[in-house]
Amino acid sequence: MLSLVPNSRQSPGSPADPEQSVLAALDRRDPEEALGILMRAYGTAVYRFCRQMVGDDDLAQEVHQMTFVQAFEGLPKFGRRSSLRTWLFGIARHRCLDLLKMNRRRHKRFGPIEEAPDQPEPGDSVEDRLAERSRAQALESCLRTLNPRIRTAVLLRYQQGLSYPEIARISDEKAPALQLRVARALPVLRRCLEEKGMAP
Amino acid sequence: MTRCDRFETEAVHLLEQGLPLDEHFSSCPDCLAARAAYERLGERVSALSGDEEPPPGWEARVWQRIEDRRRSRHRWGPWWVVPVAVAALAAFLFVRIPGQGPPSLRVEVEPGTTVRRGLEAQPGDRLQLKATTGGVDYCELRVYRNDAELILRCSTEPPCSRRGRELRASVALDGIGRYQPLLLFSKRPLPASASDLQTDTGAALAAGADVELGSEIVVR
Q1: N or C terminus of chain B with fewer C-beta within 10 Å?
Q2: Mutual orientation of helices B58-76 and A57-74 as an angle, nearest 10°?
């Protein structure tokens, strides 16, 4: 299928697919084993998604851990109507949006939280690396200007490589509506980057 | 000569739908450049946080939290005990001593005469506010439109009405926008309003007041 999405992700059912292992663990009524597999397989991907959704390391860690706690509690009732990965990202999405909503209310009440200035990382002496970091920061900043629900769709599509039907299941929205939102968001992101002097 | 923008206006949508592109997009230099830019954009989003890992030991912390929640449940007995107890207590407080709880704000939209479109509020609806003041000396109901226009501010005078520790007000939603109701309360007189939500809540907090935000209502 033609797409702007850069890389294809592992498909469910492939030999290294953790989905079957988790389902087998659930069949054995071993949710601990199932959660262990889920954390090993998707822990990093869910963390990266949460990090981009909430834009803060500490909050990302909190919401990331709560995603897996909630997944553990929901595993015995997992209905197998979607892949576990889709289901897990659905939980992460809910937790991230809840957190953003809470932060928005707190922001209204107490004003914005001052962010500490970014410190250069040790060994960041190479110009290319600094430039790449600036580009990433500009993109993160542009992503944060998007409505959280649109940001979710863009990240699930482009960062996580999910299909629109999968994102639709996660978001409880229609796939064509999501396609339209993402297609509209891409030029917005491009213009935002250009305004920051960071043309893609 | 103007640049061709068909890639941005057409091709991005087609690609997101997984549809093929026509011949133009493989020969138009502007569109080829735009496609390259969007592919780079996609790669950059894909690479975001690409070097970030969850902190070491995070899995152990997840297990710890699961264990903590299990212990907490065992301490409280069956799962339904806590919600039932909370509901019983809330019902008791509501029935026996109305308005005696801590300050709180309840917001409801009363439909106007127009046909409803789902759950959204529309021009013509009314916002019904009911606050519990908790017996504080000074309290005010306020409603801001789009964070920058104060459309309601009252305490004991109309359109507010006070009965015991309950404060009620009703305001017409006569234009589209975001409506933010809030309850301010304090032991000291409340500061004047500058008709700006951020400025006013900042001034109130600085003066030692508390602020209870109600649900934001969007009128479309």
Answers
A1: N
A2: 60
